[in-house]
Design a protein that fits this description.
mainly alpha; about 100 residues
């Protein structure tokens, strides 16, 4: 999936997110156009993420509103953090020992 986002040039929005200033009154024309482009990229990336996962995974990330939040949830659930990996490894070792 990361490769897909690199190809369609959405990877920066997915990995880093973007800053939404909220009040657009103080923005220049170029800044507004950039904001609109980033919002579209974010929405499309979120749509691609939702389309690539099954319903069980969707339930875990349905509450998110940006592609970065969805990506981070997926990374935490599937790649895991170091502590989660260690606990899983310990569990597997224990199960192996009990065989």
């Amino acid at each position: 999936m990361e490769l897909f986002f690199k190809i369609i040039e959405y990877i920066e929005v997915v990995i880093n997110g973007f800053t939404d200033p909220g009040d657009q009154a103080n923005l220049t024309r170029d800044q507004r156009e950039e904001l609109v482009r980033n919002r579209k990229k974010d929405c499309r990336a979120l749509m691609y993420i939702f389309g690539a996962i099954d319903s069980e995974v969707y339930e875990k990330i349905a509450h998110v509103t940006t592609s970065k939040e969805a990506w981070d949830c997926l990374i935490n659930n599937y790649v895991g953090r170091d502590k989660v990996k260690k606990v899983r490894l310990q569990t597997l070792r224990r199960q192996f020992e009990l065989l």
